[in-house]
Amino acid sequence: MKRSIRDLVNLKGKRVFLRTDFNLPMNKAGRISDNTRLVNELPTIRYLVDKGAKVIICSHLGRPNGFDFRLSLWPITLLLMKYFPGKVQFAHKTIGPDVQEQVASMSEGSILVLENVRFYKEETQNDPEFAKQLASLADIYVNDAFGTSHRKHASTYGVPRLLPNAVGFLIENELNIIENAIKTPKKPFVAIFGGGKVDDKIGALLNIMKVADVILIGGAMAYAFLVAEGHSVGHSLVDVDSVKVAEEVLAQAKTLNKRIVLPVDHVAYMFGDKKEKTFVTDELSGEMVGSDIGPKTINLFEREISKANQIIWNGPLGKYEDPKFQKGTFKIAKKIGKSAAYSIVGGGDSISAVKQAHCVKMINHISTGGGATLKLLEGAPLVGIDVIQEKVV
Ligand code: ADP
Ligand code: 3PG
Ligand code: MG
Questions:
Q1: Domains of the chain, with CATH numbers?
Q2: Closest ligand by atom to 220 CA
Q3: Which candidate in 71, 87, 206, 380 could, as Cys together with 62 as Cys, close a disulfide (CB 3.0–4.6 Å)?
C-alpha cells in the first residue's frame, strides 16, 4: 500500500508540491464544462491547508505546444478561489525566480497554483533538470493526479524521485475502489464495454474477463466482434486490426467459459439517406452504418444488468453525441443507475453520457481517469503511483 498524506506528520509550514489533474473539459467557447476533477480534489487540498502546509498546486491542461493563453490555469485558479477565499495565489510561470519568490512569501495554509506545466516541453520529456527545478520549490511531493498517473512526465515521475512523497485522497479512493472491484468482485459481475477502438480497451477487457461473469459489448466495438463471428456489418465502423483482437477475445472467452453478449439489433442509417431505421444483425449489409444498439439489445442488456451485483462500464453504446443515436446509451445508463448493483463508470465519453442522461448521482463510483482508469482495470502499473513510497507498517 502506498504512503498516504495521512501518514505525513508535521505538515505545518512545509512546502507541499501537489500534482493534481486539473485537466478539466472545456467547451468550444473555452469555458470549463465540467469541474468534477476539481471538486474531487478539494478534500486533499483542504486537509493540507488545515494542517498548515503551504500548498503548491501543479497541473497540466490540454496538450499545448509552448505557451497558449487558452490553456492557462488562471480560469481554474479562479474557480478554486471560490472554495478557498483569500487563500489562493496564481503564479504566471511554473518554474524560475519569480515563482521561487512567490513560494518564499507563502503563509501557512495558503495555496499557490502554478501555470500549466505543459507550457514547458521538458515536462512531457521528463527532463531531469526541469524536474530538479520543480522539486526545488517544495519539501514534500504529493501525487493526486490520478488521471495523469500513467504518464512518465517530470511532474508525475521525475519530481517524486527527488522528494519524500505520498498519494492524496483522490488517488487512494480510486485505487481502493477499482482494485477491490477486480480483486474481490461482487457476483454476478457484469462488465459493459463500448465506444471506439477495441485496441485501447483490449487489455482491460481481457483482464476483466477473468473475473466478470458476463460481458456486454455495444458501440462501434461490437462491430469488430460481429465481423469476427462472420456477420456482415455493412459500413459500420470497424478497423481490420480490431477484428483480429476481437477474435482473440472470443477465443479467450471460450477457454475461460465466459459469456460475451453482442447486439442482436441496431439503429442504423444508409449512406445518402440519413433517416435511421432499426435492423436485426443479419439484416445489416451494404451501405448501412450501425450507430446505436436497437430495442431488442437494450432489453437483452437490461435483463443482464438486473441480475448483477457489480457493474463496470466503459464506452458509450452508440454515437451518443447525436440525439438519433443516444437512446441505447442513455437507457443503459439509467438501468445501471437504478440497479442495486455496485456501479463503476470510467472513460471521458462514458462520464459525459452519464451526465447527459442525468444519472451521475445514481452511479456509485465515477472514475476521474480516462487512460489511467483503463490501465488500472488492465492490472497494469501506473508509473506515477508506482514511484511513490510504500506505507511503513
Ligand atoms: P470513453 O471515452 O468513455 O472511453 P471512447 O472514447 O472509447 O469512450 O468512445 C466514445 C466514442 O465512441 C464516441 O465518440 C461515440 O460516438 C463513439 N461510438 C460509439 N458507438 C459508435 C458506433 N456505433 N459508430 C461510431 N462511433 C461510435
Ligand atoms: C486525461 O484527461 O486523461 C488526463 O488529464 C491525461 O491527459 P493526457 O492524455 O493529455 O496525458
Ligand atoms: Mg473517449
A1: 5-171 (3.40.50.1260), 185-377 (3.40.50.1260)
A2: 1
A3: 71
